Amino acid sequence: MKELIILIPHYNNIEGLYSSIRSIEESFKIDLMVVDDGSKIKPSIIDLKKNYNQGEIIFEALPVNQGIESVLNYGLKKIVDLNYKYIGRLDCGDLCHKNKFLIQLNYLSQNQDIMLLGTQVNFIGSENKKILYKSNLPTTYQKIKKEFYVNCVIIHPTVVFRTQILNTTGFYPTEYKAAEDYAFFFKILKKYKVENLNEVLVDVIFDENGISFKSRKTQIKSKIKIIKDNFYIGFCPIYGILRNSILLYMPHSLLILIKKNFFKK
């Protein structure tokens, strides 16, 4: 069985893709699977290999744009057939700290009951590349499970998980647009123990013009639906629905201002 492969979806962000794979600095072999979602300008396998030499690169190109949920599921299905023990995630533009994956694999090896492991992150300005604020995510399974009804407290491009969990959880749900990770992690939390390392191992680009911001309302509506679909009578689910309902109508500029001032490094 092979050890680890990193799944990276790509859509019209070649420079971000190259910077992300160049940031992977480890002492062991790590393979990559890059899935292009019908980009106008696609990366070439030759250029990918020029920017990454720490393992094998598998490049898949979808003929037309299908959306992030379909791209991730396409990649996962391919990876399952390749027999890797662990799957990691990384998004184009986000940067790994040195030995990120070694630290996570060592922790997972020492804690066999943990099936998915995330980390803390620095949120970096897209223009000045300076740290805007640092995440303060819960680290224990019980706290993550509780707070997940309020917000997605696992950051997608930080995770490494055991491939075997897909046998019972299945792949990313496709009915929750722009919140496929939130729905996917909810499925995992119901069956398996997950944690976050209390260590910053990824720099996430905070791009106010990015896709995640442009689809913000769609994402919040999907999050509310996910909470309702996993609802029980309790404080956290009720608070989560109320909180996200407020965020749905809160000006985006105000939300960014709050984050920058209350979550400074």
Automatic annotation (TrEMBL):
Superkingdom as given in the UniProt entry: Bacteria
Pfam families: Glycos_transf_2
All copies of domain Glycosyltransferase 2-like, residue ranges: 6-167
Gene Ontology terms for molecular function: fucosyltransferase activity
Keyword terms: Transferase
Gene3D superfamilies to which the protein is assigned, alphabetical: Spore Coat Polysaccharide Biosynthesis Protein SpsA, Chain A
Name of this chain's protein: Glycosyltransferase
